[in-house]
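User: Is it possible to get a 3D structure for a protein together with its bound compound? The compound here is flavin-adenine dinucleotide. I've pasted both below.
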Amino acid sequence: MVRTYRPQSFQEALEIKKGAPVITIAGGTDLMVKRRRSTGLSPYFEVPAMFIAHLGEIKGVRFDGGNIRIGAACSFAVLLQNEATPPILKTAVSRIASPAVRNMGTIGGNICNASPAGDTLPVLYARDASVVLKSIDQERILKISEFITAPGETVLREDELLKEIVIPEKPFDVNFYRKVGTGMTNTISKITFTGIAEILNGMVKDIRITFGAVAPTVVRSRVNEERLIGHSGKEIEKMIPEISSLYSALINPIDDQRSNAFYRRSVSLRLLGHFLRALPGC
Ligand SMILES: Cc1cc2nc3c(=O)[nH]c(=O)nc-3n(C[C@H](O)[C@H](O)[C@H](O)COP(=O)(O)OP(=O)(O)OC[C@H]3O[C@@H](n4cnc5c(N)ncnc54)[C@H](O)[C@@H]3O)c2cc1C
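Assistant: Yes, that's possible. Here is the predicted structure of the complex:
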């Protein structure tokens, strides 16, 4: 039988984490699949399990001094309803799974699961999101790109919990997100593409481009983005072949049961082209 904890506060959850090894369960939509056993047997946990999805302190979304703060246990359904959720994140979340999974699955679980196909991740990378990690003894704030190190791997310590996600509050004029899968939503992504841009006087003032599911972690290059800053849509249209080859060198897709590397590479670069052509003035 599995021993379980249901802390009454986030502080109590941290105390439990400090005391002994426990596995954290938020919505359980990844864990219950990973730990499933034969029909009739309950999922296997080698250490006690601690439930956190009910903790009100980590379930909200709010504006705070130039940032948007999203509690780690915020479900996808709540993110979709909240006015503080950035529109591009809402678009990505609306393409995740089915209503049942969106009611249970959390943004914190999507991040800590660190799947290359996690659908919120490319948006969070593009929006320069940070994660707030808490233990009883300290708080660490890391860029999401520093937090996720490899498929399924993060720098989360044994005594830590992800508390919240912080996204700088900044409007973008162009918000382009595409998920490519076998179906519209209830499907694991073959590819995701995110492109956002800020335009001033017909020129690109800021631009962010990310690719999901085509490398061990999300692909983003500030160097490549900076090549596009200061150019008009017309100029960028002419740069598409050059920019595409720069990104082609960065992405490293694989063949698996969902797709193959050739398809993933060619569709990713086409989506890049669509986004760049969608910039005003093209
Ligand atoms: C049918 C189905 C369809 C799906 N479709 C999609 C999809 O389209 N796109 C997509 O991206 N994902 C999809 N998923 C995967 C899953 O729903 C998401 O990754 C979801 O965000 C996981 O959140 P959770 O709260 O259920 O995580 P859990 O399963 O509870 O936890 C996942 C991992 O994160 C850790 N964790 C969770 N919260 C914290 C925290 N606050 N601090 C520290 N560690 C934490 C857990 O210990 C565990 O290791 C699907 C899953 C299913 C079953």
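The longest strand covers residues 191-200. The chain has two domains: 4-168, 174-277.
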